[in-house]
Amino acid sequence: MAASYETSAEYISHHLTNLTYGRFPDGSWGFAKSQEEITSMGFMSINVDTMFWSVLLGFVFLGIFMTAARRASTDVPGGLQNFCEMLVEFVEDSILQVFGSRPNPVIGPLSLTVLVWVFLMNLMDLVPIDVIPHAAALLGIPYFKIVPTTDLNATLGLSGGVFILVIYYNLKIKGPLTFGAGLFTHPIPHWSMYWFNFILEFVDMIAKPISHGLRLFGNLYAGEMIFILIALLPFYLQWLLSLPWAIFHILIIALQAFVFMILTIVYLTQAHAVDEH
Known about the structure:
Helices cover 69% and strands 4% of the residues. Helix 7 (152-174) packs across helix 8 and helix 7 (152-174) runs antiparallel to helix 9. It has helices spanning 8-15, 35-41, 48-70, 79-98, 107-123, 131-138, 152-174, 176-185, 194-231, 235-272; strands at residues 20-23, 29-31, 45-47. It is globular and about 65 Å long. It has a three-stranded antiparallel β-sheet with strand order 2-1-3. A hairpin with a 5-residue loop joins strand 1 (20-23) and strand 2. It starts with 7 loop residues before the first helix and ends in a 5-residue tail after the last helix.
């Protein structure tokens, strides 16, 4: 498939470009057909392929657990029920080890959703790199990335959602005055250093969601890039290298979903710690 492109750079660029819908400089709306058009849209655009696969995989997650819940049995549980129960127990154990037994109706469902949803999005990286984009090209769709977590907008969106919850629980648990005062009085509790404390705390607070999203994006983007580079090699080398990398990449896919979940739990734990800043 790579042979249909004039240069390797063109092939790589095409596979790293999202299907984007937005407003053109002349005020009209439509799908971008080149990277120049995508750039001209600026912030008035949306990556349609990322949204499509994210929503679709979200419904896959819901479908799996709804099916398991409807078929649940106390007599002889089926394989799907056992699998879902194992995931729930794994998430519960992770929460107890980090968050403890604090009452919170959100952290359990949130952690389970993050783990499975991010894993499913990461898992799309194992689909052969040319299959779906080539099928989309036959339908007249110029670009069609299928791994949502290789889109920085998606990963920062996920981490941004967690960040909003962190701010909410900081205000709810600690109170606006205590939370706000902590930004000025920590780590050096002296009035002359309040300005310095605020800079440190503000940078630390903003760095958490950014690093949270960048970590997931960077690992999956690098993995996708390696698959693209392998696809540029001769056919016999593709089969020789793609299988070992795919097997190894399964570990990365699962690990990054787990890390994203654990960091979500850790940040929410910090927001609930009233005896610490």
